[in-house]
Specification:
298 residues, transport, ABC transmembrane type-1 domain-containing protein
């Protein structure tokens, strides 16, 4: 009995730091922000209960709804790219193992993964230069071949959100590719050998072996991409808000402006809860649908 008590006590002591961290840094702030939803809180003065005033303000806030639309537009472009492109590159890298070996193979994997290492401040600054409307290399190349320059990152340009999504996919390509690559390494080569004997084409092997057995990994990447898309702040702050004060590209940027420029913590808390609820609802739908296409090995 005493040994059992000691084991229980030791177990609870081991998880105590994590439970304390969750309570202090997640649950308590979440409860406080939920209370702030119904207050007018300017930080320098105590919160004042205002009922549903913040909700009424949100319904009439055109900037919020513009940011809301752009956030979903960004997620709709970013998620498919972040799920599909790393898979394609992972399959290509995996199939090239027999051709590329040694240090060159290691260097190639490092090149693919490198964009995931620098912060968004560095990546964003580089892409601001590349996508500059006048002096950017990409627009210079377009001009050289007789095409019109594209205002990639100009405020209210139709190419703004697609450009941000493309850069985000580029930065996350290596990370997603290596998760897929690890999943591919866990698929038995025997299955491919049997399919080859049966005369299966590469497309048939991809459709009937690779994708079904890799579906749990695809599901993981999908959930991560959805979460990253809704939580994207650093990129939008570096590439847009910090340069032009455009607060409509993403809800997280608008939240930041309300909270730390105008000190409107009540309204900012409401924006945070809107993002959280949207993320949870979409994740629940994806979790529900995953039973139809995700195949787990038993």
């Amino acid at each position: 009995m005493n040994k059992k008590l000691v084991d229980y006590t030791a177990g609870y002591l081991f998880i105590l730091p994590y439970v304390t961290g969750a309570l202090v840094f997640f649950l308590l702030p979440a409860l406080m922000s939920f209370y702030y939803l119904f207050t007018r809180y300017k930080v320098i003065s105590p919160p004042q209960f205002v009922g549903l005033d913040n909700f009424r303000q949100m319904l009439q806030d055109t900037i919020f709804w513009e940011a809301f639309k752009n956030t979903f537009y960004f997620v709709a472009l970013y998620v498919p790219g972040q799920v599909i492109l790393p898979l394609i590159f992972a399959v290509l890298l995996y199939n090239s193992i027999s051709l590329i070996k040694g240090k060159f193979a290691t260097a190639l994997r490092a090149v693919y993964y490198f964009p995931a290492i620098p912060s968004w401040f560095i990546i964003g600054t580089v892409w601001l230069w590349l996508l500059n409307s006048d002096a950017g290399i990409i627009n210079q190349l377009l001009s050289a071949i007789g095409l019109s320059k594209i205002p990639f990152l100009q405020t209210d340009s139709p190419s703004l959100i697609p450009s941000l999504a493309a850069v985000a996919v580029w930065k996350g390509l290596g990370y997603g590719m290596f998760i897929y690559y690890i999943g591919l390494r866990n698929i038995s080569e025997t299955l491919y050998e049997v399919a080859k004997i049966d005369g299966a084409s590469w497309w048939h092997k991809l459709k009937t072996i690779t994708v079904p057995l890799l579906s749990p990994t695809i599901f993981l990447i999908l959930i991560m991409a959805i979460s990253d898309g809704f939580k994207s702040f650093d990129q939008h702050y570096t590439m847009v808000f910090n340069r032009s004060a455009n607060n409509k590209t993403h809800l997280m940027v608008y939240l930041y402006e309300k909270a730390f420029r105008y000190l409107d913590m009540g309204y900012a808390s409401l924006i945070a809860w809107v993002v959280f609820v949207c993320l949870i609802l979409i994740t629940l739908v994806v979790l529900k649908l995953q039973k139809r296409w995700v195949h787990y090995e038993h």
